Amino acid sequence: MNPVAAQFGGNLRYCRRRANLSQEDLGFGANLHRTEVGLLERGARVPRIDTLMKLAGALSIPPEELLDGIDWQPGSVQPGEFGVAPPSESSASASRGGD
Known about the structure:
Elements: H1 3-18, H2 23-30, H3 34-41, H4 49-59, H5 89-95
């Protein structure tokens, strides 16, 4: 299971229950199907940004509450560089005029 999806799902479930809403009520308020709310709560899906905003609006909370505990860790990047490849036999022959 995706840990980000699981964290989001737990946050969503907590906020929904705190608002005393059923999955169906939340889905109606967010213009989502009840099954979509269930999939998100179980961590089976990660929401798109528009879905995040719909859910936050339906719960009357800032979107940050649904993202609590989700953090970005930048990865390491190895910069690349261009170089000159050694000439191949065919290109060396062509540069000499085809001998």
